[in-house]
Amino acid sequence: VMDVLTLSRWQFAVTGMFHFIFVPLTLGLSLLVAYFETRWLLSNDETWLKMARFWGKLFLINFVLGVVTGITMEFQFGMNWAEYSRYVGDIFGAPLAIEATLAFFLESVFIGVWVFGWDKVSKKMHAASIWIVAVATNLSALWILLANGWMQRPVGYHLATDAAGQVRAEMVDILALLLNPYGIIKFFHTLFNGYAVAAFFVMGISAWHLLRKSETLCFKRSFRTAAFFGLAASLLVALTGDFHAVEIAKVQPTKFAAMESVWETQRGASMSMLLVPDETGERNRIEALQIPKLVSFLAFRDPDAEIRGLKAFPKELRPPVWPTYLSFRLMVGLGMAMILISLAAVYLSGK
What we know:
The chain has 10 helices and 6 strands; from the N terminus they run ααααββααααβββαβα. The protein is mostly helical. The strands form 3 sheets. The protein has a two-stranded antiparallel ribbon with strand order 1-2. A two-stranded antiparallel sheet has the order 3-6.
């Protein structure tokens, strides 16, 4: 049924997905551009300067599109989710305000210095400006993901009634929000994802130019740098992803049960390599190639740990199983592919 709630969800989901096309690339590409310019500053090798200028232009285009799509999301908090904003605005709004006044202002000011200051400030100041942009970009992600982490695992708050008799969530412990394990793990997992995206972006464009035999030295260096950067980032994505899954199993058992399509509460839950969920029948149609106790071990580092099944929760609190189950496996598969491809890239870049 396409009611107001469903339309609001679709609109915000589409806006969020479009915005997130640009965000990870900004996180990683800013660091790579800063690295390239620093190598030029230290070596005075003009090839590194060409790299900084070339990838810097692509970074700027991506940054602008990310800002525009992000502003659209901000409006939707008030327009689509006004009641949510009223109910938790005292908490959710704080990290977003810090992100805007601290991180985004730093990005905006020093990206201007970087763009227009090539012949107006010293080389060291110019290189410092892009490093400030890179650090501020990553700080921006921190505050946003701490806010998102609070949504997933609310901490450090109490419910209070205002003068109009409306109940609102109010923050009572800012440290709880800042040190929320869910938010911190999500931050690092997203950060390393962004680095991997940037690495593959640089490798892909560099490979295209190398095939056309244009600016060979410039793009060979870009490819090799991105290959090592991508390998390190992909390994860290896998590591933090494992930590994140453990945290989800602890604080969001319904989501974890949907990720693994576990219907019955059980100890020593096995993982089926071939599994077909059946939401209507609240069971799995096919469960084959099982690895004993693997789900319990991955969730709690205990092969005999209890996994609460989906049937332990009311239907209205369960996430849709098929999209959750398939998207989780797609994510893991792509993560493994990224590690293998970046390994191959490191090998090929040495030839």
